[in-house]
Amino acid sequence: MTETFRPQEAAVLRVLAAREGAAAVEEIAREAGLDQSPVAAAVVRLAELGLVRVAEETREELRLGPRGKAFPGGEFPERRVARALRELGGRAELPDLPRRAGLEMKQVGESLRWLAARGWATKEGKTLSLGDPWREGEPDLQPDERLVARLRDTGPALREVLADEGIPVDEALALLAKRSGVVETRARRRRFVSLTDAGRRRVADGVEAREEVTELTTDLLVSGRWRDVDFRPYDVTLPGPRVLLGKEHPFRRILEKTRRVFLEMGFEEVESPWVESAFWDFDALFQPQDHPARDMQDTFYVARPGRARLPADDLVERVGRTHEDGGDTGSLGWRTRWNRELAARCVLRTHTTAASIRALAANPEPPRKVFCVGPVFRRETIDYKHLPVFHQVDGIVVDEHASFAGLLSLLGTFYRKMGFERIQFRPAFFPYTEPSVEVFVWMESRSDWVEMGGAGIFRPEVTEPLGCRVPVLAWGLGLERLAMFRYELSDIREIYLAHLRWLEEVPLCRS
Q1: Which residues contact 469 (CB under 8 A, 6 or more apart)?
Q2: pLDDT score, position 3
Q3: Domains within the chain, CATH numbers bracketed
Q4: Is there a contact between 377 and 349 (Cβ–Cβ < 8 Å)?
């Protein structure tokens, strides 16, 4: 009984039987009226059966590079400059050439070395004079120009095809050696297939094609065609296809988990505008108006609107007096004149503490627990742990029994709920809290402690002008860095890069 083949395999055998020598896969596909992909698969199986042999040949293909594609009008810049120079009488000043040649001044400058190398022009100072090859007329295309023109007109081509067309490829590539990006070379592999002796005998015995299907359908059953087809075998032990679940971005899950943790601890969530007044961002926090953080190199100022609406005059006056001489707080203040116009300037908020201080001013009566999650903006130098736009969780606890020990306990609870155990507190200084600490978490991938944010107890100069007479615990913590530890990233920028493999593989749950 003659062995049957799949239709594509039978087609390959028939095409090869009609030829005396080997045929390229693309030639077989063209003659058989099939796509290359099924033909290539058929060739592999026929080779496994010993009916065909496959030989590979590597050839060099040339194609235009990005610089070659960008040549104005498809011509080398030096040819356009020489043509413009001839039209201007053979002598011209450099500034006169760009417009005439249809080039930018930078392109004219870059063409000077090639004009000199080809002998097409000479330069004295800012004057360019036409060379001898152009005095009799426009020279023929040079080898490198001919090659670029051919590739531009008809697309990529094999080296031997170009040589058969009379293009001096070696000479052209030598001229282009110092002009990277004009022409690129690429290795192209071609597979040639020929019948073996066993294959010729099998064709002589007759090639019977039989359709192969992958599933039993209603149509096959009703028509009875199931008797005339082969069912492709499959291995039940092979792994199935990966099923990628739709899910939130990992960092979005960090933000939502942060909200959930504080809500579980009995906090209320508040919001504040991203474009904030300097009053709420700095002045209400008793940050002096000459503090370096207010400089343009640290803060993003907004041009429109140029001025923010300030709160009630009595509140603004109390804050201003506290800056100047301490007001009614018992402090000496900053001993400088406070400027209302500086307080009215608009900034992109530098911390979400602006939301906390707004909430405190709106209702200073204890007990209160408030938090805010959102983006903040600072002129940071981008590195593995800094970004100019990042997210913070900020919060306050207003309570007559609030203590510094309670603040540390609260922060420890938050980080443990977020899955971290190695936490460290270090003394710090902030203009608006006393005592103050910085929170650090151990980063295993860098074997180092990384600062996560600051915390402390608001100074009386912050709380009393707002009408609050009890202790207020406050903190501001970075969330991108927290995400770095959570997802074991070594660079904060990876959170926002479109690494699809990472996004696919981040688990929905962690133990």
Answers
A1: 463
A2: 61
A3: 66-175 (1.10.10.10), 252-505 (3.30.930.10)
A4: yes
